[in-house]
């Protein structure tokens, strides 16, 4: 995975350089904007960089079919700079989504540290400003997310301007734009399910939860970065179709693992409180499966407790035990395995670089077996 390690380092360097370039623009406006710059750096430092990696290996899967291809060799292709910029732009987009997601979910932490709106709330309190600290924190974090979203566009555009082919650049840009629409729609569907689930027929709840997974996470986390990278390399329709056939089930498996971690994850590892999704009332596939399997009395208790932000540790434990006893956890593990197998099968004999296909298979294991 030497290429992946190198890519992650280059993406971090590019993000740091990009923020350094934007620093004087923001700083020249007012010293009051210092938290914007500081918090941006903090939220864009480190992380798993899965979206950047899928973008890179999607590119390599097409560009690297030639066995002599060496992206980091002495004759680096100009496309590599484009890929690094676009991969970095995807990471900025992800950071913007996380800032907004934490506001929507009223989450206090992100990666073991205060979430953006809580950090801005702290600025308000520390400086003893007037008005409501929480309201200020939310307002400021919305603007930070908007800023990161705009910057992600700038960075993607900078990268695509480097590309020698206007057709490839236009194709990659269209895919990026589609991804933005899909993830925003998926986020809306997610909050709809948290509040409108009770008015929909019981038989529809699992299907509705599965649709949220596809559009809020699966496409944006895996499929879209893959095909954006492939488009930069000039992928044909068959190559795009293969990468979609790999990326969508893997993205579903990725989010199913995330849903398990949101309920059963170790706070010391995930950086989020254990059972956080239970307090937030997430109507995930895990919850839909549990409800199907539970007797009416247990289902009623689950529905009454789910989404209560004041859940105690004992109540969280009760809900976790209820979900375990329903068999939903084992069902999710089987679904993850089934989707990973479907993704792996899509690469059999695919018209892609074998080396890249092997790296994608290794990534499939990494993203679906993670503990954070």
From TrEMBL:
Source organism superkingdom: Bacteria
Keyword Metal-binding included in the entry's annotation: yes
Pfam families to which the protein is assigned, alphabetical: polyprenyl_synt
CDD domains, A to Z: Trans_IPPS_HT
Keywords, in A-Z order: Magnesium, Metal-binding, Transferase
Any GO MF annotation of the entry: prenyltransferase activity
GO biological process: isoprenoid biosynthetic process
SUPFAM superfamilies linked to this entry: Terpenoid synthases
Coiled-coil parts of chain: none
Cross-referenced Gene3D superfamilies: Farnesyl Diphosphate Synthase (1.10.600.10)
Cofactor: Mg(2+)
Similarity comment text for this entry: Belongs to the FPP/GGPP synthase family.
Name used for this protein in its record: Geranylgeranyl diphosphate synthase type I
Organism: Compostimonas suwonensis
């Amino acid at each position: 995975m030497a290429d992946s390690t190198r890519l992650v380092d280059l993406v971090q360097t590019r993000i740091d350089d990009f923020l350094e370039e934007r620093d004087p623009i923001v700083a020249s406006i007012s010293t009051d904007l210092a938290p914007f710059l500081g918090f941006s750096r903090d939220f864009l430092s480190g992380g798993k960089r899965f979206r950047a990696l899928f973008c890179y290996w999607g590119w390599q899967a097409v560009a690297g079919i030639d066995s002599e291809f060496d992206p980091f060799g002495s004759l680096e292709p100009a496309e590599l700079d484009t890929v690094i910029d676009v991969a970095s732009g995807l990471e900025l987009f992800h950071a913007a989504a996380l800032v907004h997601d934490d506001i929507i979910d009223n989450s206090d932490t992100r990666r073991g540290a205060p979430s953006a709106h809580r950090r801005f709330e702290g600025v308000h309190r520390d400086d003893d400003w007037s008005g409501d600290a929480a309201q200020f924190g939310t307002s400021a974090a919305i603007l930070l997310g908007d800023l990161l979203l705009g910057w992600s566009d700038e960075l993607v555009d900078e990268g695509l301007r480097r590309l020698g082919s206007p057709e490839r650049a236009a194709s990659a840009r269209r895919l990026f734009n589609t991804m933005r629409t899909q993830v925003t729609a998926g986020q809306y569907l997610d909050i709809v399910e948290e509040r409108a689930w009770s008015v929909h027929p019981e038989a529809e709840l699992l299907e509705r939860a599965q649709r949220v997974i596809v559009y809020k996470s699966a496409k944006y986390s895996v499929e879209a970065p893959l095909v954006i990278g492939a488009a930069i390399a000039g992928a044909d329709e068959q190559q795009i179709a293969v990468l979609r056939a790999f990326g969508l089930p893997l993205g579903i498996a990725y989010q199913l693992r995330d849903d398990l971690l949101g309920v059963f994850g170790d706070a010391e590892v995930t950086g989020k409180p254990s059972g956080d999704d239970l307090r937030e009332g997430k109507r995930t596939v895990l919850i839909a499966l549990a409800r199907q399997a539970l007797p009416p009395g247990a289902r009623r208790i689950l529905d009454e407790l789910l989404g209560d932000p004041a859940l105690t540790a004992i109540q969280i434990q009760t809900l976790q035990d209820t979900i375990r006893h329903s068999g939903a956890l084992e069902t999710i593990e089987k679904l993850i395995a089934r989707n990973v197998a479907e993704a792996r099968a899509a690469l059999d004999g695919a018209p892609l670089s074998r080396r890249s296909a092997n790296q994608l298979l290794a990534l499939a294991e990494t993203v679906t077996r993670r503990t954070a």
